[in-house]
Model the fold of this input.
Amino acid sequence: MLMGQEAVGKTTLLALMYKEFTRNSYFPFVASNDTGIDLEEAYQKLCTIIEKPNFTEPPRLLPGTASVREYNFNIENREFVVCDTAGGLLMTKESDGRAKDLEDFNKAISKSSVIINVIDGAAMLEGSDFLADRVNSPTRVKDLLMRNKAGDERCLILFVITKCEAWIKTEAGIERLKKAFEHRHKAILNWIEQNPNRAGIFIPVKTLGCVEFSFKEGDGNKEKLVFHKKTNLKFSQENVDKPMQYAVKFCMRRSLLPIENQFKFYGNSFMIQF
Ligand SMILES: Nc1nc2c(ncn2[C@@H]2O[C@H](COP(=O)(O)OP(=O)(O)O)[C@@H](O)[C@H]2O)c(=O)[nH]1
Ligand SMILES: [Mg+2]
Done:
């Protein structure tokens, strides 16, 4: 299940993950008809938008009315369901008249073996505490997991860092991302350490490649991060298939090793070795 605030990059990740996974994986990977068409469309849309010279902000890729959208895949005769969430569900209250959506959301979390927490890396690293909280809501994610995954079931949380084109290029940059992540998402890392059946992996990814963070403007409520399309850089990806690789292996109880150098594992190592 993909979890994260609006606009952190969940749907973009899903469309690219599907593409790269199909290209790279040794698992035979088959999308159900609707899933294949939807994700292919999202990918095509992303490509045309990104090739435009005076590109500002690409629009939403897969608009959906449903709060929890399911994508179905078949891998080695097993059914996999990836849940994407929309409509700001992370911050929805029962009193907003969306009790049913909220119930579906909580149910999906408790059923999921793997949670992919998508995190806006620019806000995490460059934002004030206020902005980083507003954009990524680490406390809210932790509360939802504590409530819906209180038991002893095996659970893997993949922390996928998006919008980090400006830092993923160098080792020092990745180190900075890691530090900021451990500082700002400390509470959920503590929760992982509390039970040997939980594990986490820090995974920085490059999804667009040609759009980089340039500067921060405004203060308080008006604080905003500004990105620019770099004409010297190409639309390119790095690591986008990795979350899916780990998720599938984890569900099939296969070893997740070796974990990439740029990544970091948290929790009990027996969770990833078989
Ligand atoms: N620079 C940059 N922009 C991204 C990245 N991932 C997503 N975006 C942009 O962030 C916006 C929101 O993405 P979307 O996938 O719709 O977010 P969702 O609401 O979490 O599903 C879009 O304008 C994307 O193009 C990334 O890795 N780098
Ligand atoms: Mg979305």
Notes: DSSP finds ten helices and ten strands in the chain. The chain has one domain: 2-269. The radius of gyration is 18 Å.
